[in-house]
Every structure is written in structure tokens, then in C-alpha cells.
Amino acid sequence: MSTETIDLDEFRKEVRAWLAANLKRRRSSAPQAARTETKTPEEIAESRALQRKLFDAGYAGISFPREYGGRGLSAAHERVFREESAAYVMPDFGAAGAVTFSAIARSMLAHASPSFLRRHMPKILSGEEIWCQFYSEPAAGSDLAGIRTRATRDGDRWIINGAKIWSTGAHYADFAMCLARTDWEVPKHRGLTWFAVSTKAEGLTIRPIVQIDGEAGFCQEFLDDVVVSSDEVIGEVNQGWAVAQTMLVYERGAGQVGPVVLEPRTLAPDLVALARKARRTDDSIVRQSIARAHINDYAQYHLGRRIAARLRASDQPQPAVAAYGKLASGTFSPIRARIAVEIGGPEALLWHPGDQRAMRYSINYLNGRMTSIAAGTNEMQRNGIGERVLGLPREPSFDSRRPFSEVIAKARNWDGQVG
Amino acid sequence: MDFDATDDQKVLLEASARFIQQAYPLGRVRERAYRDVACAADYRRQAGELGWFSMLVPEDLGGGNVSGNGVLDAALIGYKRGAMLQPAPFAGTNIVAYALSAAGSQEQREKVLPALMSGQASASWAISPPAGHTMESSVTAEFKGGAYRLSGCKTFVQDVDEFCWLLVAAATDDGVSQFLVPPGTPAVTVAALDSLDISRQFAEVRFEGAQLPPTALVGTAGKASGLLARQCAIAAVLTVAESVGAMDHEFEMTLQYAKDRIAFGRPIGSFQAIKHLLADMSLSLEMSKAIAVAAAKSLGTDDGYGLEAASMAKAFVGEAGVELAQNCFQIFGGIGFTWEHDQHLYLRRLTTDAALFGDPAWHRERLCQLSNL
Ligand SMILES: Cc1cc2nc3c(=O)[nH]c(=O)nc-3n(C[C@H](O)[C@H](O)[C@H](O)COP(=O)(O)OP(=O)(O)OC[C@H]3O[C@@H](n4cnc5c(N)ncnc54)[C@H](O)[C@@H]3O)c2cc1C
After folding, report:
1. Which of A108, A129, A359, B314 is deepest in the core (most CB within 10 A)?
2. What is the mean pLDDT of residues B344-366?
3. A with B: how many residue pairs have Cβ under 8 Å apart?
4. Could you tell me if residue B1 is inside a domain?
């Protein structure tokens, strides 16, 4: 494999010049509501064109291997590009895009076969294939290893039956990374396999679900005899849990806490604006709340830097350490959203029809629990930190040693017996 | 506390930890040995030799730090001190040394400052107002007949004795001024108080018309408010660092207990109620370390956000420390309710740290004011 060597400063210069010549600058954005990340077909088409432009210029998959369409440079180069491009309009595929380029692409790189990677990775990097996650099911979320979608081998293909749910962006994605059970007579972690499923596949029904804020963001799917060829298996058959482990590191943001990339130095501007609107800037309770929110933002930002340093100092992936960032976000986002509603009172709870700016506090309030539930609940992060960072003994396990078929047969009548 | 401590910092910290272990382990804390004047003097001199009181003083005045950021170096020492609940007015003495080096007269710098840095003399900062007063106005200074007459009261003054220098802020007609009050000044009375915290000794200091010559001024009369703000920020950061040290040590003690203590046939740390509490405490501790280091770096490098960062750290860690100590108490169960167990020493210290040099609510309000709200 040929490798390009280019030092970071030189790379930065190159990136800077290319960005200035080829991309549009972003208008500095006013604080926006954390809306459900849904995208119109036009927006997706624009983003695909932009992604293609990056790909053709060598700025898509900067740290991905060249043979799979990447540039073959380091994570540090990738960071340089992120920093420099922050001021420009970049492709935005919503939440499905975020997982495509991180959790999904990275787990594939670590586990998929070379032929699979040659087939899919260049299309991912060029914006031709947007992926989504078929992990959760009506009967299994936190307990991901407890999913019940069934894949049955049929010669050199697999037949998949079951139901998935909460799949963000499935209505506009091209492919899904789908977890299914391939062996029911072994303990739950040992009978799982990952498949690449086309969202156009016959037998697959995708139904958008209206989310708490009234927008469609995630979907429900029914898989009825969906056929997938054997070379679309990601990783080894029945070894799906190993892939899931890799995926979880990236799901937790690999140490990046929240969307904040710069140290917050302005006292919670959204809350100050709201307090002004509510004419409560002299109210000491309001002042205390604003300060509290800003202090939490500041502490979270520095926690993120601390975790990143800790992850860099270790040569092994540490999903449990990354869980600190996830738990911080899951803990403080709901608090912050609630503070806004308390400060604003009617100013945050009522608005004239269509007033996007005024409605954002209520929308943020509703979406405030996104990070405490999606991609692993706070409780799961606490289990991870408790057991894998602090070294506390595990909870006695009722289900991890018996055949999965037996576990589900007995779950409703669990008698309290363990093992 | 800081992942990228330099080699020089590591040497300083190892020497400090060794000194603490030898001179003043937790057993001595319990005996309250520092109340003995000879013990205190000995402790202070050894600490002075390690450079504990020199970090905020520039080299040309005989001070010096090890990393180029004296606030950070002092904070890292503070972290070690906090873990073992050390006595001596560490923040206070450093503040006095800092104020003298920043604004003191030549005489103060030449005669008093070296003695403070070496630990020959002690100094404390009288800043906290009694109930119903503000920091700037609880003591007033009236200029009459060529001398200042100080009246009023300060509380929460740490580890003072009759040989101690005091730095005090007082309201004068033209603004806030600071004075260096020599030991034994007439009409200055020090009343030792009992306190929740038994690792330190606090006192109330009364000024009952105490006469001070203009040479006792630190800096220009009426112009102290800028320096005072910085002193408050540094004292906040050093106190935060000590709190984080105490939190870290107490958390480790508690975590170990959760692994060792058996109930219902298994370690209590396997129960999710305890495990999740510990995970939350661990997050809060990590955030406290992060914000403490961030504030020390910001303040010590004058990056333009230091005063805000210091207040944010004090507010965050003040609450996190008390919360953590309370949770540790709960996890220890009955044994934590005993005098013999160490947890109460930490609970006492952390609760007091939260109130010292501005409590969390005070610092949140200060943040609003610094941010022009
Ligand atoms: C906005 C959003 C977007 C999402 N996007 C996707 C997506 O793209 N693809 C996808 O596959 N999924 C997605 N999800 C699903 C998400 O991953 C799950 O909702 C989440 O993992 C929780 O699973 P659950 O909803 O089944 O809740 P449950 O697992 O049923 O949990 C219910 C409650 O029980 C608690 N609990 C469960 N197990 C334990 C335990 N062992 N110890 C302590 N407490 C426990 C949980 O913490 C929670 O409080 C999304 C969810 C949201 C909200």
C-alpha cells in the first residue's frame, strides 16, 4: 500500500487554499433548536454533490486506507481538516450521515472483508451510499445482544425476518447495517451476525415514525423474507458482538463531548437572550440558573479535552472511558433544556404560530433527553463506567450463559434464579 | 490531576507528597498537631524549602515556579495537600506573597516577602466578611493624623497566631485599599473559633481602631480592586485544587470499600444503586479535575478568561465536593458514622472548602457580573 507523507502544517496550507477556492463559507449561525435531524430529498441531493466534490479532491476519508477510496493519512490530518472546514458549508446528511462516516464506516474497516470494503467504502466516502443503523428492535434496545430478528442461511444467501425500530434516517438512507440472530441455541452474544441490507430490498418496509417534537426522524421497519447475499455479511458469522464492541466506541463519540468544538466563553447566550425577553435578568434565581448552565457547558468542554487526552495516551480503544462524555452529555443536556424552560416561563412555552426562534426552547426541552437515551442510555453508561473503568463486580447475569431460545422462553416468569 | 505534568512538576509533586507523608499524615490531622506553635513553625519552614510559598512570586524577587505557570504549579501542590487534608494557610500565604510581589512597597518586598517564602514567617489573608457585610466593606480605614485607623471584622481567617502577618482589604474614602498588618499590632484581636472542619483552625479578626502607618499600604490607596479580584480568583483556584485532591482520595477510599464490603452474598459495589452512584461520582470527579486544571491554566497564563474560569471552577467544585462527600458517607453505612473512620474528616473539609473564599452561589453571581449581565 503506498502511503503519502505530508506534514501537518503543509497539509493545513493545502486544505486552506482548497477550501477557499472551492467551497462556500457558512453564515455564522444563530443558536438553532436541536431539531430532529431530518433532511429533505433536495438537501440530501445537495450534500451528495458536495461530498463527491470532497471525494474527488481527496478530502473524504482522509484517514481511511487508499485502497478503499481514502487518502491514507493520519487521524491528526483528519482533525486539521475538521478545524479548517468548520467555517465552510459541508455536506450534511443529518444523523444518518454522522453515523455513516463514524460508527458504521469505522466498524466496517475493522471487521468487513477486503472485497466488501472495496465494494462499499468508496461509495460511502463519495456520498453515493448513506447508511443507517438497524440495531434496536421493539423488544431490545439497551440489551442489544437480545435482538430477535432472524437470519436463516439458504445456500450462499441469507433470508432475514423480523422488525427493527428507531432507525434514524432510514427513510432517506441507501443501506442499513442490520444485526440479526443466526444461532438461537447458544448464549445471546454468540449467535449474532451483521448484514448490509439495501433499503430498496424486496420485503423491506420502512415507515417513518413521528417523533416527540412532531417531526419524522426515525423509522420502523418490517423485514419479510429479505434476501441478502453471503458476501454482504460484515465480520464473521456468529461473531457479531465483536463488531458491536467497535461500533460502541464510535457511538459514544470516541471522547468527543457534545457538539461543542470551541471553549465556551460567552455566558450562555441563548439563556441570556431568553432572560432578557422574559425581563428577568435582575432575578437572582434566573442569574444563578444561567451561570449554572454556562459552568456546566464549560466543565463539559474541558471534560471532553481531558478524555481525549486520556484516550490518546492509551494505545487501546477504551469504550468505557468514552462513556464519560456520553454520560456527561446525557446528564447535563436535559438539565440545560429544563433551565431554559424555567427561565422563560411563558416566553419559552408559548409562541405565535410559525415563530421558529420562539419555539426552540420548547423543542430543545423535548429533545433534551436525546443524549440520555439514544445510542445507549445513561444507565448503560453507568454500568460501563462502574464495571470497566472503576472495576466494580458485574451484576449477576441471568441470561448470558444459557441458550438464547431458553432465555426468552423463561423471561416473563423469571423466578429470581441466576445462572 | 493533570495528564501532561512536566518532569519538573513531577519532581516538585513527588517531593511534596513525601514531605506530607512524613510531616503530617492523617494521624497528625486528627491530633490537630498544627495548633502547636512549634509544630506549625517547623511544618512551614519545610514547606517553604519545597517552594510552596514561592510559586506566585517572580524570580527577580526571589520566587519562582517550575512550569512557567505559577498558578498551575501551586494548584498541583494544592491537589496533593488536599488529598491529605493538610494544614497551614496555603492559599492565604500564597495570596499575601503574590500581593506583595505585585504591589508591595520595596520595604515589604525586601523585609517581609522573603520570610514568607522561606516559611520563617507566617501570613494569612483576612478577606471573608462577617454576616451582613461585603468583602470590600466589612473593614473600613479612616485616614487621620497621618495614620489609618482600621475598624471592623473579618472571619474565616485560617491558621493565624500572634506571629502572623495579615493582609486585609478595607474601604477608604477613595476606594478599596489593602494593608499588610504586622504581628502584634495593637487593637487587632484574633479570636480562635471552633469549626466543622478539624483539619484547619479558623479565627475571627477584629480591628478596633487599629492604627497603621501609610507604609502598611499594599499598593496605592483606594486602587486595590483590580488586584483584589485577581487574589480572589487565585485563592478560589487553589482551594478548588485542594478540594479535588480531597475528593479524589475520598473517592478511592469509598470505591475500595464498595469492592470489599459484602452484603447479600456479594460485594456492595455489584448492586446497581451503589455502582451507578459511584459512576456518577466518578464523572463529577473527572469534571472537577478538568475544570480545576482549565482554570489554573487560564488564570496563570492570563488568557483573558481567567477570572471567569476561576469562579466557574469554584462554583462547580464547591458543589461537586459536598455532593461527593455526602455520597461517600452514604456508601460507608454505619462505619462512616464513627469518629474513628476518616470519611468525616473529608466531609468536614470539603463542606468548608465550598464556603471558603466565596461559596458557589457567590461565584455564580460573580460570573454573571464579569459577563456584564
Ligand atoms: C432519538 C433517537 C434516535 C435513535 N436512533 C437509533 C438508530 O438510528 N438505530 C437504532 O438501532 N436505534 C436507535 N435508537 C434507539 C436507542 O438506541 C434505544 O432507544 C436505546 O438504546 C434504549 O433502548 P430502549 O428504547 O429499548 O429502552 P430499554 O432498553 O427498554 O430501556 C428502558 C429503561 O430501562 C433501563 N435499563 C435497561 N437495561 C438496564 C440495565 N441493564 N440496567 C439499568 N437500567 C436498564 C434503560 O436505561 C431505560 O431507562 C434511537 C433512539 C432515540 C431516542
Report:
1. B314
2. 98
3. 124
4. no
Supply the pLDDT for residue A261. 66
Q: Is A45 helix (H, G, I), strand (E, B) or coil?
A: helix
Domain edge (last residue) among B216, B251, B274: B216
- Domain membership of residue A416 (yes or no) is no
Question: Of B216, B242, B268, which residue is a domain's last?
Answer: B216
**3-state SS class at A96:** helix
Asked whether the predicted pLDDT for residue B207 surpasses 50, the reply is: yes
Question: Residue A379 falls within a domain, yes or no?
Answer: yes
Mean pLDDT of all residues belonging to chain B: 96
Min distance B325 CA to chain A CA atoms (Å)? 18
CATH number at residue B99: 1.10.540.10
Would you call B275 and A291 a contact, using CB atoms and an 8 Å cutoff? no
Q: CA–CA separation, B114 vs B120, rounded Å?
A: 8
pLDDT at A276: 97
Range of the structural domain that residue B160 is part of: 123-216
* B125 touches A at CB < 8 Å: no
* CATH code: domain of residue A346: 1.20.140.10
* Least confident segment among A5-9, B177-181, B239-243: A5-9
Give residue-wise pLDDT tens across range B19-29.
999 999 999 99
Whether residues B267 and A392 touch (CB distance < 8 A) is answered with yes
For range B218-224, the mean pLDDT: 96
Site from B271, B287, B293 to mutate, A interface, most A CB atoms within 10 angstroms: B287
Residues B263 and B247 in one domain: yes
> Do residue B153 and residue B100 come from a single domain?
no
Domain count across chain B = 3
Same domain flag for B253 and B340: yes
Please tell me whether residues B231 and B366 are part of one structural domain. Answer: yes
**Residue A27: which region, alpha, beta or left (left: phi > 0; alpha: psi -120 to 50)?**
beta
Question: For residue B4, what pLDDT is reported?
Answer: 78
- Whether residue B134 lies within 8 A of chain A, CB to CB, comes out as no
SS3 at position B96: helix
Domain carrying residue A314:
261-389
CA–centroid distance, A322 to ligand 1, in Å, is: 18
Question: Residue A60: CB partners within 8 Å, gap ≥ 6?
Answer: A51, A54, A69, A70, A125, A126, A127
B135 against A185, higher pLDDT: A185
Q: Is the dihedral of CA B274, B275, B276, B282 positive or negative?
A: positive
- Mutation target vs B (from A306, A307, A329; most B CBs, 10 A cutoff): A306
Residue A76, amino acid: A
Do B114 and B171 sit in the same domain of this protein?
Answer: no
Over 90: is that where the pLDDT of B70 sits?
yes
Which chain B residue has the Cα nearest residue A388?
Answer: B279
Cβ contacts (< 8 Å) between A298 and chain B: which residues? Answer: 291, 294, 309, 312
| Residue B35 resides in a domain | yes
Count structural domains, chain A: 1
- Confirm or reject contact between B305 and chain A (CB < 8 A): yes
B284 has pLDDT over 70: yes
What is the least distance, in Å, from the CA of B78 to any CA of chain A? 20
Apex B280 CA angle, B276 and B284, nearest 5: 165
The residues, any chain, with a CB within 8 Å of residue B354's CB and separated by 6 or more, are: B243, B318, B319, B321, B322, B360
Question: Taking a C-beta distance cutoff of 8 angstroms, is the pair B312, B367 a contact?
Answer: yes
- CB-based contact, B276 to chain A, within 8 Å: yes
Residues of chain A where predicted confidence (pLDDT) is lower than 50: 1-2, 30-34, 255-259
